[in-house]
Amino acid sequence: MKQIPKQLRIIIFFGFSIICTSVIIVLVFYNTNQGNDREKMIKQPETTDSTENTYPIDRQINYSFTLKNKSSKAIKNAEFWTYAPVKQTSTQICETIKSSHGYEMILDDYGNQILYYVFDVIPPYGSKIITITANVKLSENSNLIVANDTSLYLKPEKHIESDNPIIVKTAEKFKNPDILKTIKKTFEWVSVSIKYAGYISRDRGALYAMKNKKGDCTEYMYLFAALCRANQIPAKCVGGYICQGNSILKPSAYHNWVEVFNKGRWKIADPQKKVFFENQSHYISMRIIGKVKENYMRNFHRFRFHGKGLTVQMNG
User: Fold this and answer.
1) Which of 5, 75, 177, 308 is deepest in the core (most CB within 10 A)?
2) How many whole angstroms separate alpha carbon 103 and alpha carbon 144?
3) Angstrom distances, CA of residue 265 to CA of 24, 174, 268
4) Does the pLDDT value for residue 304 go beyond 80?
5) Are residues 154 and 280 in the same domain?
6) Are 304 and 80 in contact (CB under 8 A)?
């Protein structure tokens, strides 16, 4: 057997060393990248399409009412009703409610939480102060929740005249195969076309806003909801407050907006303030507006009371 020349052996040795070194480098690089990929997967933030519901933002709200007997006679069985934050929406969960006085919790057809108080006796010229503290958890992104029958939010009703020919014809102008584009065009038109007229004590509704091109946040809400419903897009009307932090609610801050249903999620749209699917964690829903079987609150937006000689004001 012939012996391999010395020079050839040296060349073979160095060649083999180079191959081994290259293999080691490749393996190290591969493992490093795998580790980085795993790290990226761990650190990747949740997307809005996640099916896991999260409400990461804590908020506390406080509000109070003063009940006064302005008569010279005692008021027996004085009654008072008011709203607490809605139990759950796509962006809100009401965790706890504390009150200075005992109450009965009433839930209506829309999941609104109504606090019902009865005072056996309020003496002549006497008063009661009710304080309420609610802790809510909020989300900037809309959570996927089991929706009630969305057909409830497609029907015409008082102040939401979605079957009126004028509203139907106007809604047709914004219709697009892409539902989101339809919603956005409708929102932009309402935001620009309606003039804010300041607070109006009586609700006028969508048709009034359509004809007169003016109103307060309530008319913006009703018209936007009516135009969406006319295009078969579920839209619910909501009343509540905008709170960027822990807040004491004031009566003058009461506000109205709309939640529209798209791709399985309810999203907040506020045409009067021109806020579209943004700052959702700033909105605290106190009432979903609609026709209910047992109308405990009658047509009152924030509170209701009963008792001869009784007056009530929200403090703040």
Assistant:
1) 75
2) 32
3) 51, 21, 10
4) yes
5) yes
6) yes
- The pLDDT value recorded for residue 246 is 98
Read off the pLDDT band of 22 (50, 70, 90).
Answer: low
Number of domains in the chain: 2
- Asked whether the beta carbons of 57 and 281 are under 8 A apart, the reply is yes
Check whether residue 260 and residue 238 sit in a common domain: yes
Averaged pLDDT for residues 100-120: 96
pLDDT digits 0-9 by tens, 231-256: 999 999 999 999 999 999 999 999 99
Which residues form the domain of 238?
A: 150-289
Cα within 13 Å of Cα(211), Cβ side: 9
Residues ≥6 apart with Cβ < 8 Å to 107 = 87, 113, 114
The rounded distance, in Å, linking the Cα atoms of 136 and 62 is 11
Q: Is 215 left (phi over 0), alpha (psi -120 to 50) or beta?
A: left
* Alpha carbon 98 to chain centroid, angstroms: 22
Question: What span, in angstroms and rounded, lies between the C-alpha atoms of 315 and 251?
Answer: 7
pTM of the model: 0.82
Which residues, in sequence order, are CB contacts of 72 under 8 Å at separation 6+?
Answer: 124, 125
Place of tokens 């909020």: 138
Pairing of strands 75-84, 303-306: antiparallel
Neighbours of 158 (CB within 10 A): 12
155 vs 19 pLDDT, higher one: 155
Q: What is the mean pLDDT of residues 78-82?
A: 98
Looking at the DSSP bridge assignments, the partners of residue 214 are 195
Residues 6+ apart with CB under 8 A from 235: 153, 224, 225, 228, 229, 258, 259, 260, 261
Torsion of CA 267, 271, 276, 280, to 10 degrees: -60
pLDDT in tens, 46-66: 334 445 789 999 999 999 999
In sequence order, the 6+-apart residues with CB closer than 8 A to the CB of 135 are 58, 59, 60, 94, 95, 96
In CATH, what number is assigned to the domain containing residue 238? 3.10.620.30
Instruction: Tell whether 101 and 184 lie within a shared domain.
Output: no
